[in-house]
From TrEMBL:
Domain TsaA-like, chain residue ranges per copy: 24-154
Encoding gene per record: tsaA
Organism of origin: Lichenibacterium minor
Matches recorded under Gene3D superfamilies: YaeB-like (2.40.30.70)
Any GO MF annotation of the entry: methyltransferase activity
Upper classification of the organism: Bacteria, Pseudomonadati, Pseudomonadota, Alphaproteobacteria, Hyphomicrobiales
Entries under Pfam families matching the protein: TrmO_N (PF01980)
Keywords: Methyltransferase, S-adenosyl-L-methionine, Transferase
Family listed: Belongs to the tRNA methyltransferase O family.
SUPFAM superfamilies for this protein: YaeB-like (SSF118196)
Any one GO BP annotation for this protein: methylation
InterPro entries the record matches: TrmO-like_N, YaeB-like, YaeB-like_sf, YaeB_N_sf
Protein's name in the database: tRNA (N6-threonylcarbamoyladenosine(37)-N6)-methyltransferase TrmO
Superkingdom of origin: Bacteria
Amino acid sequence: MVRRDEIRPGEVAVEPPAATDAGLVFIGRIRTPWTDRMDCPRQGRRDGPVCRIELFAPWDGGLDGLERYASIEVLYWLDRSRRDLLRQSPKSDGTSRGTFSLRSPVRPNPIGTSLVTLVGIAGGVVSVRGLDCLDGTPLIDLKPDRCGFTPLAPRQPGDDDVDTGRA
Ligand code: SAM
C-alpha cells in the first residue's frame, strides 16, 4: 500500500484513461481523529474512537430508520489517494500483488468501505466506531449491514433462484 504517494520496488503504475463521470454525489463528510495517513488505522476496529459522520442537507433527511441497526456499512471516497497503480507492494519488500487483491486505498476508484458500530444519531450526525479514514473524507453512502438486514420489499422470483448447474 502506498503511504506517501511513493512508488515502491515491484509496484506498477499506469496512465489511467480519462475519467468518465459516474455522477457521484458526496452526501456528507466524515470527522475522525486522523489527519495524516501515517496515523490512520489500516482497518477500523469496533472498539476504535467514536467518529462523526456529518450528512449534508438535504440528505440528512434520509436517516430515519437507520437507528434500528446496530451495525452499518459506510462507503467513502478516499480522496487523497493516487489512482494509477496496477500492482502494489504492501510490505515494501519488492514483492507485489494486483491492486484488486488488496484493500489498499490506492485503486482506480478509491472507494473505502467499513462495517461500523452505531453509537447514535442526532441532528444529521451519525456517530460510529470502526472507521479508518482521514478527517474530512467525503461520504458516499450509508446502509444497514447486510448481515442484519432483511429486505422490506415483497419477495420477487429471483430471490429464490439457486444454481441449477446450467449456464
Ligand atoms: N476500510 C476501508 C476498506 O477496506 O475499503 C479502507 C481501508 S484503507 C487500507 C485505510 C487506509 O486508507 C488508511 O490507513 C489510510 O492510510 C488511507 N486513507 C484513509 N483516508 C484516506 C483518504 N481520505 N484519502 C486517501 N487515503 C486515505
